[in-house]
Amino acid sequence: MLAVYQLPVPTPYAVGPVNVYLIKNDPVTLIDVGPGTAKAGEVLKDMLSSLGVGIKEVKRIIITHAHPDHCGLAADIAGDSNATVFIHRLEEKKLRGSHDYFKERLPFVLEAGIPAEVLTEMAGERAKLPPPGLRGAVNVEILADETLVFDGGELMVMHLPGHSPGHVCLYDPERKYFFSGDFLLPHITPNPVLEPDPEKPGKRLPTLKQYLGGLDRVEALDITMVCPGHGGVFSDYKGVIEAGRRHHRFQFDRIMEKLRGRELSTFQLSREIYPNLKGWEVFLGLSEVQAHLDLLTEWGKTYCFKKQGVVYYTNP
Ligand SMILES: [Zn+2]
Ligand SMILES: [Zn+2]
Fold this sequence. Notes:
By secondary structure, this protein is α/β, with parallel strands linked by helices. Helix content is about 40%, strand content about 20%. The protein has helices at about 40-50, 70, 75-80, 90-95, 100-110, 115-130, 205-220, 235-260, 265-275, 280-300, and strands at about 5-10, 20-25, 30, 60, 85-90, 140-145, 145-150, 155-160, 170, 175-180, 225-230, 265, 305, 310-315. The strands form three sheets. A six-stranded mixed sheet has the order 1-2-3-4-5-6. A five-stranded mixed sheet has the order 7-8-9-10-11, with no helix packed on it. The protein has a three-stranded antiparallel sheet with strand order 12-14-13. The longest helix has 23 residues, at about 235-260. It binds zinc ion (2 copies). One zinc ion binds near residues 67 and 69. One zinc ion binds next to helix 2.
């Protein structure tokens, strides 16, 4: 049986602490590591040592997805421990920091109709936060849908995109624990973060469609406990999945209502729905609205047209 410990680590982000999971069976494994701040590193190392685990004993670091709150410390922990970092191929670029995250998303943000001053504020705030990034020589292995074996247990890797393109969750078939990363959270629905499609230049990934498809797959599992990336563990996964679906139905209805007889850009719509967002949150608000618009448009419920570089949506 796998011996699992939840280690909440502080983050400088609005989301609050992030959960690292320690699996003490050989090879000693961490699921996520926390943000790249000195404070998080100290807290994590203290908690590990209070559980009798020295940093050098960590052999595997599994990253659910390369958002900085989950993976920022990967380079430090891998450097100190010599552990191998496991990550899905679609997250590796973000983890290594070997690309310009913002520039890749810029064409989509511009066609959403964002005013120049809001764009400047949004980009400026992002630059202040510690980015993910593997520095130095770190062993990285690419995760596929596979089973990771431990002494006395195993974890099945499930690729569940939507919040992030290479997001993975892990399922322990013996205890029926589900390590959900940000895919399933106790009180909030994860943001369908706007992502360029790596296979189709100029197109967005259908993030919300991917996510809703993933919920069906997770609902079909037999789970006794969800171990989320934020917040406490919970067992009512079917209730949380249903609440997620309800949230998205509500958003579809709300957007349809706002577009009735009007023509609005994604930015204008997101301002009406989230009037108080500031800085980087503006991008998350845009992502949420854009993901719903993309699905509504695919279903033929809304239409869009481009005028002077900005895409407008309407519900005739
Ligand atoms: Zn995330
Ligand atoms: Zn997160």
